UniProtKB/TrEMBL annotation:
NCBIfam families: sigma70-ECF
InterPro entries named among the record's database cross-references: RNA_pol_sigma-70_dom, RNA_pol_sigma70_r2, RNA_pol_sigma_r2, RNA_pol_sigma_r3/r4-like
Domain RNA polymerase sigma-70 region as annotated: residue spans: 12-82
Superkingdom of the organism of origin: Bacteria
Name of the protein described by the UniProt record: RNA polymerase sigma-70 region 2 domain-containing protein
SUPFAM superfamilies: Sigma2 domain of RNA polymerase sigma factors, Sigma3 and sigma4 domains of RNA polymerase sigma factors
Gene3D superfamilies: 1.10.1740.10
GO molecular-function terms, A-Z: DNA-binding transcription factor activity
One of the GO BP terms on file: DNA-templated transcription initiation
Length: 191
Protein backbone atom coordinates (compact mmCIF):
# COMPACT_ATOMS: atom_id res chain seq x y z
CA UNK A 1 0.00 0.00 0.00
CA UNK A 2 2.79 2.41 0.92
CA UNK A 3 4.62 1.52 -2.30
CA UNK A 4 1.53 2.43 -4.31
CA UNK A 5 1.28 5.80 -2.53
CA UNK A 6 4.93 6.66 -3.16
CA UNK A 7 4.61 5.51 -6.80
CA UNK A 8 1.52 7.69 -7.24
CA UNK A 9 3.34 10.63 -5.64
CA UNK A 10 6.27 10.08 -7.99
CA UNK A 11 3.91 10.08 -11.00
CA UNK A 12 2.33 13.32 -9.79
CA UNK A 13 5.67 15.06 -9.32
CA UNK A 14 6.98 13.86 -12.68
CA UNK A 15 3.90 15.12 -14.55
CA UNK A 16 3.15 18.41 -12.75
CA UNK A 17 4.05 20.42 -15.85
CA UNK A 18 1.14 18.86 -17.77
CA UNK A 19 -1.48 20.90 -15.93
CA UNK A 20 -0.37 24.44 -16.90
CA UNK A 21 0.26 23.28 -20.48
CA UNK A 22 -3.22 21.83 -20.82
CA UNK A 23 -4.88 24.84 -19.19
CA UNK A 24 -3.03 27.16 -21.60
CA UNK A 25 -3.93 25.02 -24.60
CA UNK A 26 -7.62 25.00 -23.64
CA UNK A 27 -7.77 28.74 -22.95
CA UNK A 28 -5.44 30.20 -25.59
CA UNK A 29 -8.32 31.76 -27.54
CA UNK A 30 -9.61 33.66 -24.48
CA UNK A 31 -7.61 36.88 -24.57
CA UNK A 32 -9.03 38.27 -21.33
CA UNK A 33 -9.15 35.22 -19.05
CA UNK A 34 -9.30 36.44 -15.44
CA UNK A 35 -6.48 35.33 -13.16
CA UNK A 36 -8.97 33.74 -10.77
CA UNK A 37 -10.42 31.61 -13.57
CA UNK A 38 -6.94 30.52 -14.67
CA UNK A 39 -6.04 29.58 -11.09
CA UNK A 40 -9.34 27.71 -10.68
CA UNK A 41 -8.69 25.70 -13.85
CA UNK A 42 -5.14 24.98 -12.72
CA UNK A 43 -6.37 23.75 -9.34
CA UNK A 44 -8.94 21.52 -11.03
CA UNK A 45 -6.18 20.18 -13.26
CA UNK A 46 -3.93 19.36 -10.31
CA UNK A 47 -6.79 17.57 -8.54
CA UNK A 48 -7.49 15.57 -11.70
CA UNK A 49 -3.78 14.70 -11.93
CA UNK A 50 -3.85 13.38 -8.36
CA UNK A 51 -6.99 11.34 -9.05
CA UNK A 52 -5.45 9.97 -12.24
CA UNK A 53 -2.32 8.93 -10.36
CA UNK A 54 -4.30 7.22 -7.61
CA UNK A 55 -6.43 5.30 -10.12
CA UNK A 56 -3.61 4.44 -12.52
CA UNK A 57 -3.34 0.74 -13.50
CA UNK A 58 0.31 0.73 -14.75
CA UNK A 59 -0.60 -1.09 -17.99
CA UNK A 60 -0.37 1.91 -20.32
CA UNK A 61 1.66 5.15 -20.42
CA UNK A 62 0.64 7.62 -17.73
CA UNK A 63 1.08 10.93 -19.61
CA UNK A 64 -1.73 10.41 -22.18
CA UNK A 65 -3.99 9.03 -19.44
CA UNK A 66 -3.29 12.06 -17.23
CA UNK A 67 -3.80 14.52 -20.12
CA UNK A 68 -7.21 13.04 -20.83
CA UNK A 69 -8.18 13.07 -17.15
CA UNK A 70 -7.12 16.72 -16.74
CA UNK A 71 -8.85 17.85 -19.92
CA UNK A 72 -12.07 16.01 -19.01
CA UNK A 73 -12.07 17.50 -15.50
CA UNK A 74 -11.80 21.01 -16.97
CA UNK A 75 -14.59 20.26 -19.46
CA UNK A 76 -16.75 18.97 -16.59
CA UNK A 77 -16.09 22.18 -14.66
CA UNK A 78 -17.10 24.31 -17.66
CA UNK A 79 -20.28 22.25 -18.18
CA UNK A 80 -21.14 22.63 -14.50
CA UNK A 81 -20.58 26.40 -14.71
CA UNK A 82 -22.82 26.64 -17.77
CA UNK A 83 -25.52 24.59 -16.06
CA UNK A 84 -25.39 26.78 -12.94
CA UNK A 85 -25.45 29.93 -15.05
CA UNK A 86 -28.67 28.73 -16.69
CA UNK A 87 -30.27 27.86 -13.34
CA UNK A 88 -29.61 31.15 -11.58
CA UNK A 89 -30.02 34.77 -12.51
CA UNK A 90 -29.23 37.98 -10.74
CA UNK A 91 -31.99 39.84 -8.96
CA UNK A 92 -30.85 42.91 -10.88
CA UNK A 93 -31.82 41.16 -14.11
CA UNK A 94 -35.48 41.05 -13.11
CA UNK A 95 -37.81 43.94 -12.52
CA UNK A 96 -41.52 43.95 -11.83
CA UNK A 97 -43.83 45.86 -14.09
CA UNK A 98 -46.98 47.70 -12.94
CA UNK A 99 -48.99 44.46 -12.66
CA UNK A 100 -46.34 42.83 -10.47
CA UNK A 101 -45.23 40.47 -13.24
CA UNK A 102 -41.50 39.89 -13.46
CA UNK A 103 -39.85 40.85 -16.70
CA UNK A 104 -36.32 41.29 -17.93
CA UNK A 105 -34.69 44.68 -17.88
CA UNK A 106 -35.15 46.52 -21.17
CA UNK A 107 -32.14 46.84 -23.42
CA UNK A 108 -31.08 50.38 -24.25
CA UNK A 109 -32.01 51.67 -27.69
CA UNK A 110 -29.28 52.17 -30.25
CA UNK A 111 -29.71 55.93 -29.86
CA UNK A 112 -28.64 55.65 -26.22
CA UNK A 113 -25.17 54.36 -27.12
CA UNK A 114 -22.34 56.84 -26.95
CA UNK A 115 -21.16 58.41 -30.20
CA UNK A 116 -17.75 56.77 -29.76
CA UNK A 117 -19.24 53.29 -29.55
CA UNK A 118 -21.42 53.97 -32.59
CA UNK A 119 -18.37 55.07 -34.59
CA UNK A 120 -16.38 52.01 -33.47
CA UNK A 121 -19.30 49.77 -34.38
CA UNK A 122 -19.51 51.29 -37.87
CA UNK A 123 -15.73 51.05 -38.36
CA UNK A 124 -15.63 47.42 -37.27
CA UNK A 125 -18.56 46.59 -39.59
CA UNK A 126 -16.78 48.35 -42.47
CA UNK A 127 -13.54 46.52 -41.69
CA UNK A 128 -15.39 43.19 -41.60
CA UNK A 129 -16.86 44.01 -45.01
CA UNK A 130 -13.34 44.70 -46.32
CA UNK A 131 -12.11 41.39 -44.91
CA UNK A 132 -15.08 39.67 -46.49
CA UNK A 133 -14.30 41.19 -49.89
CA UNK A 134 -10.56 40.45 -49.66
CA UNK A 135 -10.92 36.82 -48.64
CA UNK A 136 -11.85 33.95 -50.91
CA UNK A 137 -13.35 30.49 -50.65
CA UNK A 138 -14.10 29.00 -47.26
CA UNK A 139 -12.93 32.05 -45.30
CA UNK A 140 -15.23 34.38 -47.23
CA UNK A 141 -18.17 32.01 -46.82
CA UNK A 142 -17.33 31.72 -43.13
CA UNK A 143 -17.32 35.49 -42.58
CA UNK A 144 -20.57 35.90 -44.52
CA UNK A 145 -22.23 33.06 -42.59
CA UNK A 146 -21.03 34.54 -39.27
CA UNK A 147 -22.59 37.88 -40.18
CA UNK A 148 -25.83 36.16 -41.22
CA UNK A 149 -25.83 34.14 -38.01
CA UNK A 150 -25.52 37.40 -36.07
CA UNK A 151 -28.72 38.45 -37.85
CA UNK A 152 -30.54 35.39 -36.51
CA UNK A 153 -29.97 32.63 -39.05
CA UNK A 154 -29.15 29.13 -37.78
CA UNK A 155 -26.47 26.94 -39.31
CA UNK A 156 -29.22 24.66 -40.67
CA UNK A 157 -30.85 27.59 -42.46
CA UNK A 158 -27.49 28.73 -43.80
CA UNK A 159 -26.80 25.18 -44.97
CA UNK A 160 -30.05 25.20 -46.95
CA UNK A 161 -29.15 28.63 -48.33
CA UNK A 162 -25.72 27.43 -49.52
CA UNK A 163 -27.06 23.93 -50.35
CA UNK A 164 -24.50 22.23 -48.09
CA UNK A 165 -24.79 20.31 -44.79
CA UNK A 166 -24.91 22.49 -41.63
CA UNK A 167 -21.64 21.03 -40.36
CA UNK A 168 -19.86 22.40 -43.43
CA UNK A 169 -21.21 25.87 -42.59
CA UNK A 170 -19.87 25.46 -39.04
CA UNK A 171 -16.48 24.40 -40.47
CA UNK A 172 -16.37 27.57 -42.59
CA UNK A 173 -17.24 29.62 -39.53
CA UNK A 174 -14.52 27.92 -37.52
CA UNK A 175 -11.89 28.77 -40.14
CA UNK A 176 -13.13 32.37 -40.33
CA UNK A 177 -13.12 32.72 -36.53
CA UNK A 178 -9.53 31.50 -36.42
CA UNK A 179 -8.52 34.14 -38.96
CA UNK A 180 -10.52 36.89 -37.22
CA UNK A 181 -8.98 36.07 -33.81
CA UNK A 182 -5.53 36.66 -35.29
CA UNK A 183 -6.41 39.97 -36.96
CA UNK A 184 -4.81 42.74 -34.88
CA UNK A 185 -6.70 45.62 -36.52
CA UNK A 186 -10.09 44.02 -35.84
CA UNK A 187 -9.01 43.27 -32.27
CA UNK A 188 -8.07 46.93 -31.78
CA UNK A 189 -11.48 48.04 -33.09
CA UNK A 190 -13.39 45.66 -30.83
CA UNK A 191 -11.30 46.15 -27.68
Amino acid sequence: MEKAITAANRLIVEHLELVPKIVRSLTFSYSHLPVQEYEELTQIGYLALCQAASGYDWERPFAPYARTAIRNAIYDYWRDCARQKNLFCSLDAIQADENGDASELPFPDKEEYSPESQILQKESAAYLSQLENRSRGMIQKGIVSLRLQQSGYTSAELGRLYQVPPNRVRAWQSKAKKLLRQDQELYALLA
